[in-house]
Amino acid sequence: MASDEVLAALGVEGSTAAAHALSLPAEAYGNDPQLEVMWAMKAYNHAEVYFNLISSVDPKFLKLTKLDDQIYSSFRETFKDLNIKLLNADELKSDEAKERWRPYCNQFEGLVEDFNYGTLLRLDCEKDYTEENTIFATRIQFYAVEIARNREGCNEAVFTSRSCKS
């Protein structure tokens, strides 16, 4: 079922309740499966909107946040050699990687809204979001990688392949 169909099925009251539930602090919940589904839907919606955006607008002109310049320069200072075209999950998730990412991410606390929210990130930038090509990352990791992909021309393949089909 598509995300818009799910939201429509919830109705106004259900959608409002879901939005309210997602705005509460994490401490208000245990491991509630319904909450996990709502977070997954929110992450999926974000991914879908972003992919549609880079498919229809030349990514080199996109600005994802007010702090794109700072996010990008700090990212490339910290992760000079990270292959953003084809990410390896270990470069984001291994214990060693987490130690490198933590200080990078935390510098944006209070500056980038929802900097540590879960977000879907494509491993291969030339492909769509699929189960095999997607990893769960924090919002600031998503911004760092996607801003770099946009500026370095890596998302150009998505834009040109979609615009050629139109």
From TrEMBL:
Gene3D superfamilies on file: yst0336 like domain
GO CC terms: cytoplasm
All residue ranges annotated as the Polysaccharide biosynthesis domain in the record: 35-158
UniProt cross-references to Pfam families, sorted A to Z: PBDC1 (PF04669)
Protein name in the entry: Protein PBDC1
Organism of this sequence: Parambassis ranga
UniProt gene name: pbdc1
